[in-house]
Each structure stands twice: as structure tokens, then as C-alpha cells.
Amino acid sequence: MMAQYIEIKAANPDCLLFYRMGDFYELFFDDAEVASRALGITLTKRGKHLGADIPMCGVPIHAADQYLQKLIALGHRVAVCEQTEDPAAAKKRGGKAVVRRDVIRLVTPGTLTEDALLAPGRNNYLAALARGRVSEGADSFALAWIDISTGEFRIAASDADRLAADLARVSPSEVIVSDSLYADTDLKALWRDLDAAVTPLSPAFFDGATAGERLAAYFGVATLDGFGSFDRVELAAAAAALAYVEKTQIKERPALSPPSKEAPGDAMLIDAATRANLELVSALSGGRRGSLLEAVDRTVTVAGARLLARRLSGPSTDPAVIDRRLDAVGWMLADAARRTGLRDALAAAPDLARALSRLILNRGGPRDLAAIRDGLATAAALAERIGHPSDPPPAEITEVASILSEAPVDLIATLTAALADGLPHLKRDGGFVRPAYDTDLDEARALRDESRRVIAGLQATYAADTDVRALRIKHNNVLGYFIEVGAAAADKLMTAPLNARFIHRQTLASAVRFTTTELADLEAKIAGAGERALAIELAVFDDLAARVTAAAPTIRAIADALAELDVAAAFAVLADKEDYCRPVVDRSLAFAVSGGRHAVVEQALRDSAGSAFVANDCDLGPGDGEESGRIWLVTGPNMAGKSTFLRQNALIAILAQTGSYVPAKTARIGVVDRLFSRVGAADDLARGRSTFMVEMVETAAILNQAGPHALVILDEIGRGTATFDGLSIAWAAIEHLHVVNRSRALFATHYHELTALSAHLPRLVNVTVAVKEWKGDVVFLHEIKPGSADRSYGVQVARLAGLPPSVIERARAVLRQLEETDRRSPVHALVDDLPLFSATHHEEPAAPDPLAGLVDATNPDDLTPRQALEALYKIKAVRMKSGGKDG
Ligand code: ADP
Ligand code: MG
Question: Rounded CA gap, 540 and 518, in Å?
Fold first, then answer.
């Protein structure tokens, strides 16, 4: 047996091996030591290998999921090795033959399917990242991601600039890359910063030449044309993801939806730092509490929660898509009774997608069948409800209703007839098929139950015949059925004539056990009938699972439609309860919010019964005659509400483009294609960069990437260094934003000197957060108004915070001195003395070079020799046109 173990382990060196023995998965050698430490289970030993004890530990089958979850969460991968033949078959081969075993599945973070291992309201993605060389130094990337627990499969092109943001949006649990990509020094930081397991694989997984074929084979189609058009790198990523799914699922094949392609501009691009900073789906403290997602999630199903998280992670950039979603929310909002009715019905829908995936992967249980039954029944009921509306529903709802009405009634009926009332977790426990569904099963069960009655009768007979009233017939797993009498009565059964009938089996301290041929026969019959009943039940299960599998595409579409309905209704509830308004989203550069609030802070203030949230306007759109949006420079003392104001506007843009109503009186938003949010002086010691370095790296990313359709939030940039350093950097950054990036931006600062810039930058607007001074204290009004703050009120804030009075007094004195010095050499003078950024900035964006464009658009890998020659002529022609020499 050890030889078999060592062989299987050698084939899976990077996994902990769960080796099935009876009712346990055992781990040996190093695996045992790792697992016993990680799981807190006892380390024992079993036999010897090369003269040394073999460490061993085990987890019981029935609790395996919990242990798996722990190990996966700790970053381990597990190979599950099962017995692949009946032990009896091994015995037949010879006394010493070892039961055949095989690894049936690799459990990795990105390929989970069990509810116990998954967060219900979150997708669990495996992502594959492939790279193609467009030319020396210019790489293209593609990302394919799969959730095998729901069947989702998507592909998107990416590039070096946006790669991190794309990965952050998908937020996979596991990323697979080729060895060479993994070793690439340029990408080391990316792997390190990813909150995912990164698994390097051999380049064969990413082979572009065979990728198309491999994909087509998986989906059983001759050509992929029906799914869309994919380039070589996209195909390589998709095929790698599939190959990895096959590698981990071994024999089972999840029924994935055909890959759907997302265009690079479909979703608002939000990098990881911005997501973290805005606390989109998880708070800075980690976890969902305090995040935007938590604040706006009113869904009643887990599938709805997943869809909401997905949409919030990648808000749309298409006003048509957004309007469609807003229409659906509006329809839900219009009729409270209808909305409540739909939600009550929805709440009964189990997680169809995940139950379906488990059934298809042969990992499902009776409760998964019940989930399909109940989910489909819910769909059918909902279709009815939407079918008779008082006012006609908008496009999205109509589409949902038409999908729901496809719920296969036959399948619902079959499942309803087949499944018993109380269902076991595992199919091997039996007892899940309803009586009268299968006559053979009913017969086998009757026989089994009848025999049990016969045994009870037998006990009475034996007691009478032996005159031992305490005689009992019992059952255990070792002996099966046996007759038990007290020690005193045993002699009687062991002497003639009774010993001819009662055969001694076992003597215990207080009891002696016997059997009879009659009892042994009966036992065989009972076991036979029980086994037969279970076998029939398992066959029924397989039949039902096959019917479900056959309807998989319909069921998946229904699952998606239910989620969509849930999200629309949930946003309506949110809008209703929280008093949100419908935003106008278009392709302009507008950003006009009146009465805007911070979705999370507003609720938090209310929960803590604090003061009410103060609503504020924001208008970053171009003014009359202007072509680009504006920059609002927000000054004000600490604690005034600058950061809150900045973030609330970013969140309003995100919510609007997600297709939600927004916390404001009115809002008009020109689609934001890219959102940046940075805070000065955020600590990031874990990544080994100084605070200031992080701040600068992130600011650099913004100044290099933001365009006119971007929204930029800069919160106290430059705070992480000495005053003049910081001021200078903030100064230059604002000028760059204004002149080069021309993005809509909010810039909070405590450098009041910066407000002087508005004299020279026409689209820079100074606003400040109002405070009142009252008896030497500062009172925060949280009101944004035009103008600039003249001072920081730092000392007053320090006083509020409870610094000792002597320190406060001293600080006031020092401040007076400093302000005196400042007045003698005011920084304000600088603004007049320094030439503006635009004047020193010579790097005017050049007119596009047609030759460079042509070269960039040519991918040598995709060309036939003839096309290559044609391309060469084309290049030559373009060069001639722009005045090149012939030759
Ligand atoms: P700053 O960035 O100016 O130091 P913050 O934005 O961090 O200030 O706000 C400080 C605190 O003031 C917040 O924690 C919040 O409780 C409160 N606050 C901010 N804005 C508002 C508002 N508009 N209405 C009510 N309270 C607010
Ligand atoms: Mg702040």
C-alpha cells in the first residue's frame, strides 16, 4: 500500500495528498506534518519507511469539507485520492492486492464547487493570463476567467497599463500563468500584490497554436465563430483556463457557458488601489463591513448578491446598458406591493447555478436536486407574476420574464414526484426517493423493513424457547446481527440441546453473544434488500441528475435571470428606503450632483444616531465655452469632511454606472471611463515601500494615465513629505492635471497656498468646507461652499481630541510665530513668479504618426508570408507619402 501511496504522491508533488482509507482521508510523511499543524489534528504514525516511522494523520470523510476549506484558505492545494474499485474486487485478485486508487480531483482555490468551501454571495474565479509579443517591448495580454461553481466563462483583452486594474476587477481566487510570465521581473510586483494564489504552469497550457482547437473540442463545436472573434492571445488564455479546469477536475467536466468576450472599454477601469481606497467591495479593515457593497446590498438571493458585487466591481461605460438597468429599477420602484411580492417569491429561490454545477460535476447530493426543483418552481411562479403587470415592464424585465417562463415544467414535476420530504446531505445515505416513485425500490424497501419485523419476532421466539427473558437481538458493524444474553444465562445456551442451535460468537465481561443460521440468513436478506434499495436510489439519482444536466443551459439562463430580477428589485428597495434619485448618464463630460451624500457614511451616522449627514453639491462639468471638465480644489480643516466629500462623488459615479439610483437630489454624469482615487500618506509598510514612495508611485500612475473622461480623486497628495516638498509636488500635479490630463478632478489639500493657483488655471475652482469658530472651539458644518479656507484649525482639532491644555497653549504660541514668518515671505507670491506648468511643458501631444500606427497594427505572428509582403509595401507607400526617399 505504501508503494501505491508513494507513486501517487510523486505524481502530485505540489499538493497535499488526501489518501482514502475506509472512512478517512489519511495523510502521510511531510503532508501529515503540515496538515496536523494547519488543522490542529493529532499526528500519529503508521509502519516504517526506510527504517523510520511514517508520520500520519487523518480526517473523517464526513467532515472533510471543513478541513479542505481550512487548508485551501491557508493557500494549500489538495489532491483527493479515492478507492476506484470495490475492496472485494481487490481481494479477488489475490490476498495481498491493494485496492486500486486514483486521484479524482485537485482542490485548488480557483476550482471549488462545494458550498462549504465557497462564500455564497461571491463569485470564485479562476483566471488565466496570457501574453503575446506585439513587437519588441510591446506586450499584449489577455485574461480568461471561469467560475466552475456557476459555469461563467469570460475573456477580455488587456495591456500592460491596465492589467492590474483588470485583474482587480475580476478579483480571482487563483491566477494561472506560464512559467516564463511568472518569472518575468516586470510582473513580480503584480503577483505579489494580487490577493490570489498565483500558479505557474508549463507553457504547453498556453500554446496559442492549438488553443482554438482545444476550445472548440471542449464545447463540441467545429468552429468558435459562433462565440465571437478572439485573437491568438485571448484563445491562449481561454484554452489555458480550460486545460487547468480539466487538470484539476480529472474526469469530470463542468458545463461552462460558451466564452463571452468583454471589450476593454465595457467597464469603468478602476485599479486595485482605488478599489481599496473607496472601499468598494471590502473595507480597508478587511471584510465586507463598512464597504459600499454592504451599504447598498438589499438582495434576497445569493445569486443576486453575486451579480451585484460583479456589477459594482465593473460599472458599465455604456449609457444604453445603464439606462436599461435604471429602467428596470424604476419599474420596481413604481409599485411597492409588486416589488414586495416579487421579492418574497425570489427569496425562496435556492442557489440554482451552484447546485447545477455540482450535479454536472457528479458531486451533487439530493439537496442539490431539491434546489433545482425549488429554483425552477420559483422561476415559473415569478414568470406568472410579471406576466400580468398593471403597467408594461421595461426591456430588461420583459426579457427576464420570458426566460423565466421557459422553466421546464416536466422537470419540476419529475423532481417533485421523485424527492422525499426530508433529504439527506449525501446520496449514499439513501432514503431520498419518495415512496411510490419507483416500484422496484418500494419492493426492496418493503423486504428490508419486513425482515426487520421478522427479527423482532425472532427475538420473542428465542426468548421463549430458551426461557431467557433478557435475550436480545442486536446489531453492530462488526458482528452484524447477533443474539446477546447476560453472562449468567450463557451456559444454558452453550450446553445441549440449545448449543446445537446457538453458535457462540463472542464473550464479553457482562454478556455473551451468539448467532443462529436462521439469523445469519435473515441478515443476508436484510443487507441484500438494503443494498438493493440503495442501488436503485442511486440509479434514480443518476437519472434525475442526467435530466437536470440535459436542461443545463435553460437552468443557467433562469439562474441569471433570477439574479437580475433580484438586483433590480434590491436597487429599488435601496432607492426607496434611502431616498436615492435616478441619475442621468450620458456620453458628455458632465458631473453635476446636487444634494449628494456618501452612501456609507450617511447610513453609519444614522446607525450611530449621530448628526444627520449634510448633503453637498458638486459640479465638475465644463463651464460655458470650456472643453474639459473642472478641478475642484477642496480646502478646510482636518475633520471638516473633505475626504468624505471626495469619496461620495466617486461612489455616486460608480453607483450610477452600475445601474443604481444614487444618494443625491439630482445627478447628471457623463460616463467615467477610468476612476482614480488616492490618499496621501497611506501606510503600506507591508509592501516594503515607504509611505511617500507609494503615494508618488500612485500619483505617477494617475498623471500618466488619466484622460478627459476620467474622474480623479486626490486626497492630500504630498502629505507624506516635508512641507515645501509636498506643496511643490501637489502644485505641479494640479497643473499637470489641468493642462495635460484635463480630467474631472477633486483635489483635497491642507496647503492653502494652492488656492492661489485658481488665478491662473481657468478650470480650477476653489471650494472649502465651512466651519464655525465658537468660543475658541471649531464647529464642523460639513458644508461645501465656494472659496478657500484661510487656516487649518489644527490646534482647535487637537484640543477637541483632548491634548493637554499646556500643549495646546504652547502650540498656539508656536503657530503665531510661524504665521508671522510666513507673512514676511508669502508662498502666494510664488504663483506670480513661477511660469505656469504649460509654459514649461514642451511635450505637446504629437499628431498621430501614420507609419507608427501601421507598424503598431501589424502583428507578425498573424501574417501569412503573402500578407507580410503586402504589409511591407503598404509601409513603404505610407513612408513615401510623408516625404520618405524611394530606394
Ligand atoms: P477631512 O478629510 O476633512 O479630515 P473627513 O472627510 O475624514 O474629514 O470627515 C471627518 C468626519 O466628519 C467623518 O468621519 C464624518 O463622520 C463627518 N462628516 C464628514 N462629512 C460629513 C457630512 N457631509 N455630513 C455629516 N458628517 C460628515
Ligand atoms: Mg481627509
Answer: 33
Ligand nearest to the CA of 645: 1
Tell me the sheet residues that pair with 130.
Answer: 142
**Over the range 538-551, which residues count as b (16 or more CB within 10 Å of their CB) and which as e?**
eebbeebbebbeeb
Q: How much distance in Å is there from the Cα of 614 to the middle of ligand 1?
A: 9
Least confident of 99-108, 236-245, 525-534, 655-664: 525-534
**Residue 144, H or E segment:** strand 138-147
Query: What digits encode the pLDDT tens for the residues 61-81?
Result: 888 888 998 899 888 999 999
Q: Which atom of ligand 1 is nearest to the CA of 637?
A: 3
Residues lining ligand 1, CB < 6 A? 601, 611, 613-614, 636, 638-644, 782
Please report where in the chains the cell 479593515 appears, as a residue: 285
**DSSP 8-class letter at 737:** I
- β-strands 78-83, 16-21 pairing: parallel
Q: Compute the Cα dihedral for 412, 307, 323, 601 and give only its sign.
A: positive
**Rounded CA gap, 548 and 743, in Å?**
52
CA distance to 4, 34, 47, 48, 462, per residue, from 51 (Å): 18, 21, 9, 6, 55
Q: For cell 489518501, name the residue.
A: 19
Q: Which amino acid, 832?
A: D
Locate the ligand 1 atom nearest the alpha carbon of residue 647 and give its number.
6
Q: Can you tell me the distance from the alpha carbon of 637 to that of 596, in angstroms, rounded to the nearest whole number?
A: 21
Residue to mutate, 639, 646, 714, ligand 1, most ligand atoms under 8 Å from C-beta: 639
Q: Which of 112, 104, 110, 62 is nearest to 79 (CA)?
A: 104
Which ligand is located closest to the Cα atom of residue 635? 1
Is there a contact between 585 and 317 (Cβ–Cβ < 8 Å)? Answer: no
Give the residue, 588 or 161, on which the prediction is more confident: 588
What element of type H or E holds 871? helix 865-881
pLDDT in tens, 777-821: 778 889 999 988 766 677 777 777 777 777 778 878 777 877 777
Which position has the grid cell 424527492?
Answer: 419
Whether residue 529 contacts residue 447, with contact meaning beta carbons closer than 8 Å, is answered with yes
Closest residue to atom 12 of ligand 1, CA basis: 641
How far, in Å, CA of 329 to CA of 661, rounded?
Answer: 8
Residue nearest to atom 15 of ligand 1 (CA): 641
The SS3 of residue 594 is strand
For the four alpha carbons of 311, 312, 314 and 317, in that order, the dihedral sign comes to positive
What's the gap in Å between 769 CA and the centre of ligand 1? 10
Say how many CA atoms lie within 13 Å of 531 toward its Cβ. Answer: 6
Cell of 5: 501511496
Return the closest-CA partner of residue 580 out of 652, 688, 645: 652
Q: Which of 606, 644, 717 to mutate to test the pocket of ligand 1 (most atoms within 8 A of CB)?
A: 644
